[in-house]
Amino acid sequence: MMGKNPFDLEVEDIAWCPGCGNFGILAALKQSLAELGLAPTEVVLVSGIGQAAKLPHYLAAHFFNGLHGRALPVATAIKAANPALTVVAESGDGDMYGEGGNHFLHAIRRNPDLAHIVHNNMVYGLTKGQASPTSSRGFQTPLQVRGVASEPLNPLTLALSLRASFVARAFAGDIPRTVEILKQAIRHKGYALVDILQPCVTFNRVNTFGWFRKMTYYLEGHDVTDPEAAYRRASESDRLPLGVFFAAAGRATFEGSTGLYEEHTTPLFRRPVDAARLGALIETFRRAP
After folding, report:
1. Structural domain includes residue 241
2. pTM summary value
């Protein structure tokens, strides 16, 4: 890619620690959007709370920074209101799989046309190092002083069990391969999960860059249309596979199946508001006991 990236943004103060894996994800996402030929005005990023959720502040695009764990319902609504936008929901493993776990499940069921990027560093970074849903059993933190007692959540097998239409895993330390995975996810018509493994250099001294390089490998010769094969590969734990596990075309999207655009192609945000009907509806709530 030649020339200035249109998603570059001059930022004086970035809140991430030097060496944080978030920097690699930011670079990969900016490059992915640019290589897809998108303009900043065509993209909206939605995030929740956390260090990963600050990513939209550091690139040139529309964004909505909302409540903890609530990025996916907002992103779903934005896509339904304006299907022409490229919508990316992104945040950390705690925000998306912990506080946002319920929304994660139902976003998969609805299949909105958006890319869902999760920064998975296996720890809560913003709130100083508590175990996250993906922390390994036995992982010690200031709160889990004897080690995590619960089995870690596997977001890939969970997504596949709910018939997610696109499931992938990437590594923040390999920007070129992450760019290619992100481009596939963004182009995918429907819900696309990309779980990105990344180190937290401050609060997780176990899952480091070196650990991820040793403990990961890329899928080769894998049939992305075979859900059973995808589930088997996503279940592997001795070493963690990277790449696209599953991609299914043709499944109806949320915004396409609501009936909103069957008779009218005008996006919702451009349709006139019937003030009289809206006022009558509001009045029914005022009269409610």
Report:
1. yes
2. 0.93
